[in-house]
Specification:
Helix content of chain A: under 10%
Largest interface: A-B, 28 and 24 residues
Order of helices and strands of chain B: EEEEEEEEEEE
Structural class of chain A: mainly beta
Structural class of chain B: mainly beta
Strand content of chain B: over 45%
Distance between the termini of chain B: 40 Å
Shape of chain B: globular
Low-confidence stretches of chain A: none
Number of helices of chain B: 0
Oligomer: heterodimer
Largest sheet of chain A: 7 strands, mixed
Strand content of chain A: over 45%
Chain lengths: 112, 113
């Protein structure tokens, strides 16, 4: 059983560019959440998707947007990249009825 | 009110010793408290979790102690091993917020052989 998979593993972008990160949830899971983890800090909640709708949103600007597809996979898009967007982006999947969330290995985004 | 405060920031323990990490929260609506373990370059892995209706939960060498009145909970790692060396995060969530996780700042644990 494949767990949560994220792609790409690493990414380098230039300030002002746009980036798309991808996530495939654990088999059987229907809910996907995205987190940003800056170096040396705990993950910060960005948003959560269920039934292709944004269900909850954290304190992140509109430059951060997402999408969930009918197969429950998800994308995180960040526009107009800033140096401060450099972080590990984590995807977590769960069942909408469950508390347990399982994380992928993350995508390390570096903005130069 | 959404914060979860975690201490210590770092911890060094000898092999075989007990590692203790503490967390405190303010939001009394939180009803789920997991602990995650993260190795460098990896995503957090769910270690153990507790709900506020119990005061203690044990899984192998890992135990969560929960004090609802003090709004505090802690992770105890018994017989700590060098392989336990990692960063540990406490977290909290509530059903009304779709169980989005609010994480502590993390504790870097080093277990010396």
């Amino acid at each position: 059983d494949a767990g949560v998979t994220q792609s790409p593993t690493h990414l380098i972008k230039t300030r002002g560019q746009q980036v798309t990160l991808r996530c495939s949830p654990k088999s059987g899971h229907d809910t996907v959440s995205w987190y940003q983890q800056a170096l040396g800090q705990g993950p910060q909640f960005i948003f959560q998707y269920y039934e292709e709708e944004e269900r909850q949103r954290g304190n992140f600007p509109d430059r951060f947007s997402g999408h969930q597809f009918p197969n429950y996979s998800s994308e995180l898009n960040v526009n107009a990249l800033l140096l401060g967007d450099s972080a590990l982006y984590l995807c977590a999947s769960s069942l909408v009825s469950s508390t347990e969330a399982f994380f992928g290995q993350g995508t390390r985004l570096t903005v130069v | 009110q959404q914060q979860v405060k975690q201490s210590p920031q770092s911890l060094i323990v000898q092999k075989g010793g007990i590692s203790i990490i503490n967390c405190a929260y303010e939001n009394t609506a939180f009803d789920y408290f997991p602990w995650y373990q993260q190795f460098p370059g990896k995503g957090p892995a769910l270690l153990i979790a507790i709900r506020p209706d119990v005061s203690e939960k044990k899984e192998g060498r890992f135990t969560i102690s929960f004090n609802k009145s003090a709004k505090q909970f802690s992770l105890h790692i018994m017989d700590s091993q060098p392989g336990d060396s990692a960063t540990y995060f406490c977290a909290a969530s509530e059903m009304d917020s779709s169980y989005k996780l609010i994480f502590g700042s993390g504790t870097r644990l080093l277990v010396r052989p």
